[in-house]
Amino acid sequence: MLDYDKEAERYDVSRGGEPRAAAAAEAVLSLVPPRARSLLDVACGTGIVTRRLAAGRDGMRVTGVDLAPAMARHAAARLPGAVVRADCRQLPFRGQQFDAVSSVWLLHLADSDEDVRAIVAECARVLRPGGVYVTTVDKAASHNVGSDIDAVLASRPPRAARDGAALVESYALARGLAPAGQARFAGRGQGRSPRRTVADLRRGWFVTLPPGEPLGERFAARLQALPDQDRPRPDPRFTLRAYRKPAG
Length: 248
What we know:
Number of helices: 10
Number of strands: 7
CATH class: Alpha Beta
Oligomer: single chain
Strand order of the largest sheet: 3-2-1-4-5-7-6
Shape: globular
Strand content: 15-25%
Structural class: alpha/beta
Distance between the termini: 41 Å
Largest sheet: 7 strands, mixed
């Protein structure tokens, strides 16, 4: 697992930067009701998406929350006075406080199904009746674009997809949230090249291929044998699902 305090300095530039953030924010806002006047962005990271959520809807107050100190510092610089450092499994907000809640690229990082349940439960708790929770699902599958890189990585040891759409929906339903739409967006600038994939592999991006282990190096060798080492393959396409808390 990556250390997100160490990742903070290079997080944006290594993940598509502003173009990807713009695409993500636009997709999230397409699922947020026009009447929403407050939004909580859970696991806001560096705030690169959070800032665009705030700028993209006049009159909507946006709050960010993240656990990693370095990430929260970057976010606070982008949204002064609007970022809180806290664990998303125990949010420091009262119940029914926000008109909308988002969690982009979060649930796939959870260590257990219980953690995902806890995150969804907290997002539901702080959501007002009639409000909407928007989250990415199936993150790992989004990166499989049918490229030669994907063909090499297809045989790596599997990891449970804790953000599977069916699982997340079951957790939302258990908290009284009903499906309320979906959207997709491109991870602009995130198309992998073989050389970049090897670098990511060696710094721990793929959790089932720990850096320095012989198995990981065998995958690295196969990736290094691919043509066009610096040509990015197609961008991933991410999926958002929305869930509404019944009014009243």
